[in-house]
Design brief:
Blueprint lengths: L2 H13 L6 H9 L5 E10 L2 E12 L2 E12 L9 H8 L3 H5 L16 H16 L3 H11 L10 H7 E7 L9 H50 L1
Helix pairs in contact: 1-2
């Protein structure tokens, strides 16, 4: 392991606006000499959340910064009908709840020993009642979206509320920083919303036009029948 190489990459991450602690994450993984290393960081930008996955590739004894993937999740607006469920979900340490490696002593007769699991079960039941609604999807993404878990497939749900982009590192030009990536994705999100609104307006106008054409055709047919 080339420690100067790891230190250089750690400094590069800091210059790009990432947490300095990622350098140590990189060092820990590099000690196993894997062909590919991925370090992760999540940042809060107001009510928005942006997640980064930064990839390094090993060539001989050196690691090289290849690219990072950034995913922006805009603030999730929940309806008042699920505010109580949202608060209940906030009381649970979901990282711990999803961890199947954590073990503790418990007894069926001692309800305190499985209190958390009982609350988790009640939350899941309430989510099942909500079904495939937007509120249910938003709650799952809000509380589980940044947790590495294997129980629920959140990829289709996250795609509804996130926008992502891969940013490459070039030797001559470097790579844009974390703040620039956020601004880029924020603008893309606004553009996406604007296009969706424009499409909805165009669709409504087309429906009105089709409805008007149908009424006109019906009048013409009625007129022909009367003439006969």
């Amino acid at each position: 392991m080339n420690i100067e190489n790891i230190a250089l990459l750690g400094g590069m991450l800091k210059d790009l606006g990432f947490d300095e602690a990622l350098g140590y994450d990189l060092l820990k993984q590099a000690s196993f000499l894997p062909p590919l290393i991925v370090v992760r960081q999540t940042m809060q930008k107001g009510a928005d959340i942006i997640s980064f996955q930064i990839s390094f590739e090993r060539k001989l004894d050196l690691y090289h910064f290849k690219y990072y993937d950034a995913a922006l999740r805009k603030a999730l607006d929940l309806s008042e009908t699920v505010s109580a469920l949202d608060k209940k979900m906030q009381t649970i340490d979901w990282q711990s709840a999803f961890s199947l490696s954590e073990r503790k002593q418990w007894s069926a007769s001692d309800t305190a020993s499985w209190k958390t699991e009982a609350v988790v079960a009640s939350v899941i039941q309430e989510l099942e009642v909500l079904g495939d609604t937007d509120d249910a999807a938003k709650l799952k993404v809000k509380h589980w979206g940044d947790i590495d878990q294997r129980i629920f497939n959140l990829v289709p749900l996250k795609s509804k509320f996130e926008i992502s982009q891969r940013f490459y590192f070039f030797e001559e030009q470097g790579c844009i920083g974390a703040d620039e990536a956020y601004r880029f994705l924020h603008n893309r999100w606004l553009e996406k919303q604007m296009l969706a609104q424009r499409k909805a307006v165009t669709g409504n106008e087309a429906e009105k036009k089709d409805a008007g054409s149908g009424k006109l055709l019906q009048k013409k047919r009625s007129g022909k029948i009367k003439q006969i």
